[in-house]
Amino acid sequence: MSSLVVGSVALDSVQTPFGKVDDALGGSATYFAAAASMYERVSLVAVVGADFPQQHIDFLHSRNVDLGGLQRVEGKTFRWKGRYDYDLNRAQTLDTQLNVFASFHPRLPEHYRDAQYVFLANIDPELQSEVARQIKSPKLIALDTMNYWIDYKKDKLSEAMSLADIVLMNEAEAREYGNTFSLIRAARKILALGPRAVIVKKGEYGAALFADGADMVSQYFFAPAYPLEKIADPTGAGDTFAGGVIGYLAKHNDTSMEALKRAIIHGSVAASFTVEAFSVDRLKSLTLDDIAQRYRDMQRVTHFESMNGDLRT
Questions:
Q1: Residue 153: which residues within 8 A CB-CB, separation 6 or more?
Q2: How far out from the chain centre does Cα 8 lie?
Q3: pTM above the 0.85 mark?
Q4: Which segments of 179-287 does DSSP mark as H helices, in order?
Q5: Among positive and negative, which fits the CA dihedral 21, 78, 99, 64?
Q6: Looking at residue 40, what DSSP letter applies?
Q7: In this predicted model, what pLDDT tens digit does every residue of 108-166 receive, in sequence order?
Q8: How big is the chain by its Cα radius of gyration, in Å?
Q9: Residue 137 DSSP one-character state
Q10: What 3-state DSSP class applies to 162?
């Protein structure tokens, strides 16, 4: 089944210890769509300015992305400029120009409202709630956010999360939202709002799944990041991760806990390719065969045997 993403399409200027790019294709909806479209067709809702390069439109079209919800308006496209040092889990924002994104109001074509799998990327939680309420009968709604909305619109964010099935946050955001050092306690506070699961993104250390299950096996799942020797740019890894997760679930039309665990591995693997190059450059040539190979690698490196004998003696 196809999926729907509502978020940003942007032009990024990024510098890391391993290189730099200027005005490269970026944005949460872009990274999600580039990953999820490998699995099933993606419908995208976002806004760009008159200056947005046609080559980027052509790339999204080539990846089976429905751009009927992409608004092109007068003005400049959203731009972000950032820098990473050797701690690649933390970006330093140098400049943010919202431009046309400042007045973005999602407009969903009528057939988008039939979407079964929905990803509400990092936008104003009031807009996330508005979009969630327009979807007629979704099987799964996933929502991402950031510390800004926790700081300034926590009540509205809580309302948006109550409409979602899965909430994604990074580690610092989850602790801040829950006002606790414990990820377990933070996740329980979010689960109490109504979502089925919380996925905490831990950057180079992988991801953690928390759910309302009857036992430890159904409550928790921890996935490592794929081990890499070379990293160029971590920008967009979290949205690529979400694209792998939702794309896998949509392809198999399965929202069970076991499917979600497999989907998290797909997300982790997809993100491992994103960070190997700047912008979406590595995703342009990525295939499901590439994903499958690293999925098998993850199976091998995380496997361990049962205990042998009685450890008490």
A1: 124, 125, 126
A2: 12
A3: yes
A4: 183-191, 216-219, 237-252, 257-274
A5: positive
A6: S
A7: 999 999 999 999 999 999 999 999 999 999 999 999 999 999 999 999 999 999 999 99
A8: 19
A9: S
A10: helix
